[in-house]
Amino acid sequence: MFDLAELYVFLWLIYLVLSFIIFKKDSRWINRIFVLMTLNLSFESLINAWFTIHKNNFQGKLIFVILSGLDIIFYFNMLIFIILLTDNENWFNRLWKKIAISIPMIIAIYIYEILIVDPLQFAKAVSGKYLFENIYNGYIYNSYFYLYYAAIGIISICLVFRWYRKESVKRKKRQALIVFISMISALVMGILLDNYIEFFTETHVDPLMVIITVIPCLAVAYSMKKYRMMNVDPKNMAMEIAQLMSEGIIVINHEGIVQYANNGIGTMLGFKNKDMVDKHISYIIEKNNEELKLKDINSEEIQIKTRDNKIIPVLFSSTIGYDEFDEILSIVLIFKNISEIKKIQNEIVEINNDLEKRVEERTNKLNETNEKLNSEILRRIDIEKDIAYIADHDYLTGLPNRRYLMNKFNEMVKLDGNLAIVYMDIDMFKNINDSLGHEIGDRVLIEVGNRLNMIIKKPNIIARIGGDEFLILINDFQNREGLSKILDEILQLFNESFELEREKMIISSSLGIAIYPEDGKDFGTLMKNADISLYSAKADGKARYKICNEDLKQQIKEEYKLINYLKNALEMEEIAAYYQPKVNQCTGKIVGFEALARWNNSEYGFISPVKFIPIAEKTGLIIDIGEYMLKTACEKMKGWVELGHTEWVM
Predict the structure, then answer these.
(1) DSSP 157
(2) Angle (CA) 129 135 136, round 5°
């Protein structure tokens, strides 16, 4: 057996001390609500102690009514506290939410405080399993209070559990776990006491709430001490941060007396914080640096003394705080140990000096190498220039080549003006190479290039594209008459003989001309049509020029078409052998036959040998036609011989 009144007195002291500690610690709403809860419990514990002693008189019964009201208020404050603790402030962001949370408390106060007629009857309650029931006022009256505190208890436990589940910060997660375990423990203890309280006391008044609530209250106090729960006041937070900073922080007054020192400065200098308080700042700052404390400073390097009088370098900053009378209130000094940085700097200086020596040696070698490299670069530049020149110029005559001419043509077509391409080659140049040798032929080509340069001036361009072929790009003519004048001048260059091997030689050339854009809009097409014109000029007797026109292009087109047909003529059996007899004029007898090739084309009909034989000779098809004619004629002759015409010849 134990004295329940003494237990209540002991709880009264616990709750009262807890209220005082929390009240002094912080001023936030959540702390103030927790203070109200502990004061409520403290006052309720004291009243329970009184009631336990005087439970059978009228004053005791009346006090019990007051206890009911305190319980109702306590549970309401507990709900508010849990909502704030679990970061659910949004429950109060609307007026209707605040009213909805307050309505159950208002109903409970109305039922149990205002409707009470006879306090004696209200207090006549008997102990039941888990609950106490009033034996006079009916089920709803008896049950509402238990529904009220059961609902608040369940909601509170669920909120704390959800807080624990969703919280990612370890410190807050620990806080949530401690509070949750304490609430579950209080619930289990309440059930056990409700079942077995009659073994320890004869009272029929519910003493459990004040007793078991001490468990979560102490859990909250432990979390505040261990994990700084609810300690969110900026003043406290700033002090804690300052205390935890690795930089040393000292606060002094206007006389230089240390008023505060954090853990960082203690660790840096080897002092305990309390050993530095109330001492003069010169205790650690060198005298020649003492004047630094009387002004605002930002990151200046000074030296300070450690506990064993060792001098260490620090980055020093100070800020002066003034009161409302513009007098110095305090000076905050901040020290950052840069010993390791200075050590590294010294090492870097040594390394830098060593590197400078090495760099100087390497620089001398590099200068020598650079001179050689510059010479090599200049040589390479000259080579690249030569390569670029060779890529765009003919190696023999020094004239531009086809690539260079094509690029210039593509540039000129973007400008306004007339353009013409002159395709020129030297007549019978192969005979010169075959009879006099390639060296003489090269000298002829060089001389032709020199003569062309005498009359063809910029922006016109002369190019040698290979062998005895030259291309001339002309764009300074106004009309065809002007172009013809330039072409005549080119032909006149060959009127003067060429001196070769002490002999004079007359050489002629033929020209084919294509005009942009009539004869083509791109370089390839113009060059092809100029070549067609050149071919026509040579066919007409050489030593002349031909300007491309539609008739000429159509003629060449027709010739190309005949060439294509001729290539398939043998396979299509369009080429046939016709035999013309040879007759002895004296005897009138046939002495033999002449085999003649005839072409019967499916589109053109019979095509004259005068037309297709030169084409066959030019394309090399004459060989296939000749073989076909020889084979066919021999087979025919064999048949005649077998018939007895041995005297005939083919």
Answers:
(1) H
(2) 155
Helix (H, G, I), strand (E, B) or coil at 412: helix
Q: If you write DSSP's letter for every residue of 288-317 in order, what string do you get?
A: GGGGGGGS-EEEEEEEEE-TTS-EEEEEEE
Residue recorded with tokens 């004053």: 59
Provide the pairing of β-strand 328-337 with 311-322. Answer: antiparallel
CA atoms of 300 and 293, how far apart (whole Å):
12
H helix count then E strand count, the chain: 21, 17
Give the three-class secondary structure for 582: strand
**DSSP helix, strand, coil percent of the chain (3-state; round to 5):** 60, 15, 25
- For residues 194, 195, 196 and 201, what is the CA-based torsion angle, rounded to 10 degrees? 50
Separation CA 400–CA 389 (nearest Å):
9
pLDDT at position 200, please?
53
Report how far residue 285's alpha carbon sits from residue 139's, in angstroms, rounded to the nearest whole number. Answer: 79
CA distances from 221 to 214, 218, 378 (A): 10, 5, 85
Label residue 202 exposed, middle or buried (CB < 10 Å: 0-12, 13-18, 19+).
Answer: exposed
Element (H, E) at 623: helix 621-642
How far is the C-alpha of 641 from the C-alpha of 281, rounded, in Å?
143
C-alpha 273/C-alpha 280 separation (Å) is 14
Question: Does the pLDDT at position 635 exceed 80?
Answer: yes
Provide DSSP, 461-512: EEEEEETTEEEEEE---SSHHHHHHHHHHHHHTTTSPEEETTEEE---EEEE
Three-state DSSP class for 581?
A: strand
* Closest to 474 (Cα-Cα) out of 400, 419, 529: 419
Structure tokens at 243: 């205390």
Alpha-helical segments (H) within 110-262: 119-123, 139-166, 170-196, 208-212, 214-227, 234-244
Query: Residue 132: pLDDT band by 50, 70, 90 thresholds?
Result: very low
How many angstroms separate the CA atoms of 258 and 248, rounded? 13
496-514 residue pLDDT tens: 888 776 777 888 899 999 9
Q: Which residue has the higher pLDDT, 208 or 70?
A: 70
Count other C-beta atoms under 10 Å from residue 455's C-beta: 13
CA 132/CA 52 separation, integer angstroms: 17
Residue pair 248/318 in contact (Cβ under 8 Å)? The answer is: no
User: Helix or strand or coil: residue 416?
Assistant: coil
Which tokens belong to 273? 């914080």
CA-to-CA distance for 21 and 15, rounded, in angstroms? 10
Closest CA to 563 of 595, 601, 533: 601
Q: Assign 55 to helix, strand or coil.
A: coil
CA 207 to chain CA centroid, Å, is 68
- Structure confidence at residue 456 (pLDDT): 86
**What is the residue type of 397?**
T
Is 476's pLDDT higher than 80? no
3-state secondary structure of 641: helix
